[in-house]
Design goal:
The complex is a heterodimer of chains A (312) and B (305). Chain A is mostly helical and 312 residues long. Chain A contains 15 helices and 2 strands.
């Protein structure tokens, strides 16, 4: 370093700078190359071999794992559950998040407090929040107690639910319970994304709408909503990627088999199951590749749906 | 992602939330605001009450825990005594495991992330943009895709048994692309003159980074610290893969899940709720003191953990 200061040798300086740059990023780059990119290639490799836990690859089986996945009924149960979850949870949470963002974005007192409050459930761990939720919606839990106290039980009876419905333990309601749980914990996060997007809309647009005599309702649907397009794209993409990877709440609620009766069996949970319960390493690896293709495909579809490429 | 990042994390701090209420006459505005407050307060209660209920339940007896009593009848410390006396592994062990993993991962993310973030923001070297894209591309790779090969890799190295089982969990989270990204974006906002002055004074690249740039990046370092600590403290996926086999390695989220599933609590809710409180308390305190880092960090990076 001293040499480059005394002599303004620009070439040496540039070389030193480049050297420092490579040195500064060395450890992370090695880790990313080995643990991310390397592992993707390794997963591809694993997926075309018959794999022994002790010996590793035994014999080449080509695409047989992938064929087996396609004819595996349990895998399709997992796909159906995962898609159902994503298809309901993402729009629901987006709607709530947008609604909260628009209200919080107004001239109101306590803005910071409300932003903080709505994000609050997202700070807890999936384990803590899911266990808490299981307690709230258990047969004698507070949810059933409150609806009883409010005299709502006849209504629930019409829908086919008794006064002591076990929401997380019943095949018909377990996945919907997880949807509500995750909508509750994530609505604040989506609100924060939408707030960032709302703030990028210029004031003049609203002034123009006001001059035209547009009502608040019209302004929202005709001005705000379409202008939030990049925000919609970002939230939907993040949401779908997260939704397709549902694991924690399914495992915590239903264990490694997605109890009751596969109601909580998601793609990732089935992958975990193939790895640690069935101990079929290469089958699990091929399932990871299939999941990646599904996620990638979903992202591409959304990109088409929302048109323009976003800034990132 | 990139665009929202720069303005929310700039040294100017939070961008004031722009008011966008359109003028709709005084009376209409007042009514709308009242409705807005009712909704806001109602939804805020929906956020807090389940946690309050958890806390209340942890001081109840079992029969009382299924009743709608707001003040425990009778008030009892028995669930807390139960939790500290009857769990194996004991609560302090699980707490210690969570703390160890979250602490180490936070430190490695700060160290590796700030060096790399600074290099990507300021140092010129061939291939910088491509390498940065490689970093961002890792965000696209789902953890589950990596799970089978990562497990095979670490078990072939003998790092899944005994105390060594902590290593894969730490290594896999030791540096995240989002830490590098957040710090890089912040370094980009610091004026160049400052470091040029340091360089003219003869400081080397590392000295400039360490003595001049790092102290200026305190807000971004704090954000990474808090988000990373919270994310790792709460993490479930890699711990359940590598640490669930041996109970003495359990973190609090693992303990909560596996105890409940193995019937360790029976349907004895109050001690289970006491454990939920213990698992959440450190993050709750962080949130109370550093709320803006959570809120701005999430809005800015859009990347969790």
């Amino acid at each position: 370093m001293t040499a480059s200061r005394l002599l303004p040798a620009r070439k040496a300086g540039a070389r030193n700078e480049a050297l420092a740059g490579y040195l500064f990023i060395l450890v992370p780059m090695i880790m990313f190359l080995v643990l991310n990119i390397g592992m993707v290639l390794y997963a591809l490799y694993m997926s075309v071999w018959k794999w022994s836990v002790l010996k590793g690859p035994i014999s080449f089986i080509g695409a047989r794992n992938y064929q087996n996945i396609l004819s595996d009924e349990k895998f399709w149960v997992a796909v159906r559950n995962t898609l159902y979850y994503t298809a309901i949870w993402v729009p629901l949470t987006m709607a709530v998040g947008l609604f909260l963002a628009v209200i919080v974005n107004q001239k109101i007192r306590g803005q910071t407090f409300f932003r903080g409050a709505f994000y609050f459930p997202a700070i807890a761990s999936s384990a803590a929040i899911t266990v808490l939720w299981i307690f709230l919606v258990s047969p004698s839990g507070v949810f059933n107690e409150i609806r009883g106290a409010l005299g709502l039980n006849p209504l629930f009876q019409l829908l086919g639910y008794g006064p002591n419905q076990d929401w997380m333990g019943d095949y018909h309601t377990a996945l919907n319970s997880v949807i509500i749980l995750n909508a509750w914990t994530t609505s604040g996060t989506f609100m924060l994304f939408y707030l960032a997007s709302l703030q990028s809309i210029s004031h003049e647009v609203y002034e123009a709408a006001a001059i035209d005599g547009a009502s608040a309702w019209q302004t929202f649907w005709k001005v705000t909503f379409p202008l939030l397009r990049p925000g919609h794209f970002f939230v939907a993409t993040v949401g779908v990627i997260g939704g397709l990877q549902l694991f924690d709440q399914a495992f915590i609620g239903g264990g490694p088999n997605g109890e009751p009766n596969n109601a909580l069996l998601t793609i990732v949970l089935y992958l975990y199951n193939a790895l640690f319960i069935q101990i079929n390493f290469s089958y699990a690896a091929s399932m990871g590749i299939v999941l990646f293709v599904i996620i990638f495909g979903a992202t591409l579809i959304q990109r088409q749906l929302f048109g323009r490429t976003p800034a990132w | 992602m990139v665009s929202s990042q720069t303005d929310a994390m700039g040294p100017a701090g939070p961008v004031a939330v722009a008011a966008s209420a359109s003028p709709v006459g005084e009376r209409g505005g007042r009514w709308r605001r009242r409705v807005a407050y009712v909704i806001l307060i109602g939804y805020a209660l929906l956020m807090f009450l389940p946690f309050a209920w958890t806390l209340i339940t942890s001081f109840k007896t079992l029969p009382d825990s299924t009743q709608l009593t707001i003040i425990p009848q009778p008030f009892t410390l028995e669930p807390w005594r139960f939790v500290f006396a009857n769990l194996t592994p004991p609560i302090p062990v699980m707490f210690g495991n969570s703390l160890l993993i979250a602490g180490v991962v936070t430190v490695t993310n700060l160290a590796l992330g700030s060096l790399a973030g600074y290099a990507f923001a300021r140092l010129r070297f061939p291939g910088r943009e491509v390498l940065f894209l490689v970093v961002l591309a890792t965000l696209m790779i789902p953890d589950q895709l990596r799970l089978p090969p990562v497990y095979v890799l670490f078990s072939s190295l003998g790092l899944t048994k005994g105390v060594a089982a902590y290593i894969p969990v730490i290594v896999i989270s030791a540096i995240s692309a989002s830490s590098i990204f957040l710090l890089r974006q912040y370094f980009l906002t610091i004026p160049r003159d400052i470091e040029e002055a340091a360089r003219i004074d003869g400081a080397g690249f590392f000295t400039t980074f360490w003595r001049v740039m790092l102290p200026l990046a305190t807000p971004a370092l704090s954000a990474v610290t808090i988000l990373q600590f919270q994310g790792t403290w709460n993490s479930f996926f890699w711990p359940v893969v590598f640490l669930s086999a041996d109970p003495s390695h359990w973190t609090l989220p693992l303990g909560l899940t596996l105890f409940r599933q193995s019937g360790g609590f029976g349907s004895n809710w109050p001690p289970l709720m006491a454990t939920v409180v213990i698992a959440t308390l450190p993050i709750l305190l962080l949130y109370l003191f550093f709320q803006r880092y959570f809120v701005e960090g999430i809005a800015a990076s859009g990347v969790k953990g």
